[in-house]
C-alpha cells in the first residue's frame, strides 16, 4: 500500500524528511479496525515528531506519522463490537502506533467515532485531534460544565486561530456558555476567532495580563494555553483569578515558576490527548464517546468544521508543503490533505 514516512528526522526542506513509500497492508488485532484512509489533517505534533533530534536517529522500519484521519472501515478484529465494514469513521489515533499517512491504518475501536453524517471526509478529518484536545482540556482538565452550569464565567484562549483554538472557542461559547476572550495577532486571524464565537480578541504578541486590563478584565476564571507556555506563563499567573484554573497543551522548555500560583490557590494542569491510548486507561473509550458527541453537534450545526485549507492529492510533496506551512506558526484552522494518487 502507499504510505508517506521517514527513515531519518530531518528539516522539512530536505526531500527525504517525508518520502513516498510502499509498505505492507496491516492485519487487524482483536480490537482493531482496518480503515481505508480518505483524508488526513496535519497538526503541530506531526512536525515535532518529524523534527531533527539532538542525537541523530535512523529508523530501520519507516516511521509513519499522522494523527487525524477520516475513512471507511474495510475489516474488523475478532473482538470489535461497535463497528462494521463500510462504516465511515474519524479519529486521531495512538501516537505509539503507525500513523494515518498511509492508504490503510489500524486503530483501536475505542478511540474511534462515526463521521458526521452531514460532512465529507475532508471536513471530518479536520476535527478529531483538535476536538478531543479541546474537549478534554475544557471539560475534563479545567472542570468546566459542558451543560452551561458555568455560564457567564470568563476564559482566555491563547492561540485562538489554530486548530485546537478554533474548536475550543466553539465548545466554550456554545456548550459551556462562557465569555470567550481569544488571542490573535493578525487581522485575518482576529476575524476568524470572532467567527468561531469569541466575544473579545487580544494580541498574544503583547503581555496578556495588560491586554486583558486594556479591555476591562482584571482577571479571568479560566485560561487555556495553546501557544508558547514559557512566554505566557508569568502573564497567565497574573491574569488568573484566585482559585482559577490554567490548562496548557504546549510543553515548556525551561522550568516554570509555578510558585506564582500559590497565593491564588490556582490550578495548573496539562492536557495531552494521547494519554488515554498510550496508557490504555480504564476510560479509554471516552474518546470514542466524545467523538460521537462532536459528530452530533456538527450535524445539528451547533459546531462547524475548522478546515482552513485543503490540498490534493495525498503524497509526500504535498505533505511536506503542509508541514512547512504549519511550522510558520501562522496557519488558520486546519490543513487537510485528501485523495491518494
Automatic annotation (TrEMBL):
Gene Ontology molecular functions: oxidoreductase activity; RNA binding; zinc ion binding
Keyword Metal-binding: yes
Annotated PROSITE patterns: QOR_ZETA_CRYSTAL
UniProt keywords, alphabetically: Cytoplasm, Metal-binding, NADP, Oxidoreductase, RNA-binding, Zinc
Alphabetical list of InterPro entries matching this protein: ADH-like_N, ADH_Zn_typ-1, ER, GroES-like_sf, NAD(P)-bd_dom_sf, Quin_OxRdtase/zeta-crystal_CS, Zinc-ADH_QOR/CCCR
Domain Enoyl reductase (ER): from-to ranges: 16-337
Cellular component aspect of the GO annotation: cytoplasm
Stored Pfam families: ADH_N, ADH_zinc_N_2
Location(s), subcellular: Cytoplasm
Main location, first listed in the record: cytoplasm
Family recorded in the similarity comment: Belongs to the zinc-containing alcohol dehydrogenase family. Quinone oxidoreductase subfamily.
Protein name: Zinc-type alcohol dehydrogenase-like protein
Organism: Microbulbifer hydrolyticus
Amino acid at each position: 500500500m502507499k504510505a508517506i514516512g521517514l527513515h531519518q528526522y530531518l528539516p522539512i526542506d530536505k526531500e527525504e524528511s517525508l518520502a513516498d513509500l510502499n509498505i505492507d497492508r496491516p492485519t487487524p488485532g482483536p480490537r482493531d479496525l482496518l480503515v481505508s484512509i480518505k483524508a488526513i489533517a496535519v497538526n503541530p505534533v506531526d512536525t515535532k515528531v518529524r523534527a531533527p533530534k539532538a542525537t541523530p536517529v535512523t529508523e530501520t522500519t519507516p516511521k509513519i506519522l499522522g494523527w487525524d484521519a477520516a475513512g471507511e472501515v474495510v475489516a474488523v478484529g475478532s473482538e470489535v463490537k461497535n463497528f462494521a465494514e463500510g462504516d465511515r469513521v474519524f479519529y486521531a489515533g495512538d501516537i505509539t502506533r503507525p500513523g494515518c499517512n498511509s492508504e490503510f491504518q489500524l486503530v483501536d475501536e475505542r478511540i474511534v467515532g462515526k463521521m458526521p453524517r452531514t460532512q465529507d471526509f475532508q471536513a471530518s478529518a479536520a476535527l478529531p485531534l483538535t476536538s478531543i484536545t479541546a474537549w478534554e482540556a475544557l471539560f475534563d482538565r479545567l472542570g468546566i460544565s459542558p451543560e452551561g452550569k458555568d455560564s457567564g464565567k470568563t476564559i482566555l484562549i491563547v492561540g485562538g486561530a489554530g486548530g485546537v483554538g478554533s474548536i475550543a472557542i466553539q465548545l466554550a461559547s456554545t456548550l459551556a456558555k462562557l465569555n470567550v476572550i481569544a488571542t490573535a495577532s493578525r487581522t485575518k486571524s482576529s476575524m476568524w476567532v470572532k467567527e468561531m464565537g469569541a466575544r473579545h480578541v487580544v494580541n498574544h504578541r503583547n503581555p496578556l495580563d495588560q491586554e486583558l486590563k486594556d479591555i476591562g478584565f482584571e482577571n479571568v476564571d479560566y485560561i487555556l494555553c495553546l501557544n508558547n507556555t514559557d512566554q505566557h506563563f508569568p502573564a497567565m499567573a497574573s491574569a488568573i483569578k484566585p482559585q482559577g484554573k490554567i490548562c496548557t497543551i504546549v510543553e515548556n522548555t525551561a522550568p516554570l515558576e509555578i510558585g506564582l500560583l500559590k497565593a491564588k490557590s490556582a490550578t495548573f494542569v496539562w492536557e495531552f490527548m494521547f494519554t488515554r491510548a498510550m496508557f490504555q486507561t480504564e476510560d479509554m473509550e471516552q474518546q470514542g464517546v466524545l467523538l460521537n458527541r462532536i459528530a452530533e453537534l456538527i450535524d445539528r450545526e451547533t459546531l462547524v468544521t475548522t478546515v482552513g485549507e485543503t490540498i490534493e492529492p495525498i503524497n509526500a510533496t504535498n505533505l511536506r508543503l503542509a508541514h512547512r506551512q504549519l511550522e510558520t506558526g501562522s496557519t488558520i484552522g486546519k490543513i487537510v490533505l485528501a485523495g491518494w494518487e
